[in-house]
Amino acid sequence: MTTTRTRLTAQERITQVVCAAIHEFAETGYAATKTDDIARRAGVSQPYVIRLFGSKQQLFIAASTQSCTRMEEVFRAAHADIPPDTEPDEALRILGEAFKVLLDEREVLLMFLHGFTASSDPAIGDAVRERFGEIYRLVRELTGADANQARRFMASGMLLAVLAAMQVVGAGALPTDWAQELMDSFENDSVC
């Protein structure tokens, strides 16, 4: 009996490689990740990965961009549940609750954090700064928050990302009393 393999479209293959890249970069960062490992995870050859993206740098930017896009998707979906004329603090709280979904998508948050650490590379830094700014502007647009409210929201999100990176919150968390205390403090905060 023969099995027929379905041929992926070019876009499906690109998506597959970006997903593999997110996984690999999330675990080992930009400098330590090899395109061979990404190719193996994606089930393609390393020269094919380079042919698709041109360089490891461009693949990292694509993976970082995809992680930011995922955050924006979460915020836009939560925005759909915000009634018109909701006060900014309440709208931010709703977005913050939605953000907690990403605690179980640790690779997305790790990729986000690795983008910051790789920002000394000019091309990566430009892309990461642009996407972070887009997320900040989106949060303000969706909630009507002022700059101070948005700053508090972004700071809370960064703390949550760091806690997820340390594996003390989210799926597979290694609970600690101090992490639980921090998470409990979010319950009393109108921002997250």
Automatic annotation (TrEMBL):
Keywords: DNA-binding, Membrane, Transcription, Transcription regulation, Transmembrane, Transmembrane helix. It comes from the Bacteria. This is TetR/AcrR family transcriptional regulator. Signal peptide: none annotated. Residues 11-71 form the HTH tetR-type domain. Residues 34-53 bind DNA. It comes from Nocardia stercoris. It holds the Pfam family TetR_N. The chain crosses the membrane at residues 153-174. The keyword Membrane applies.
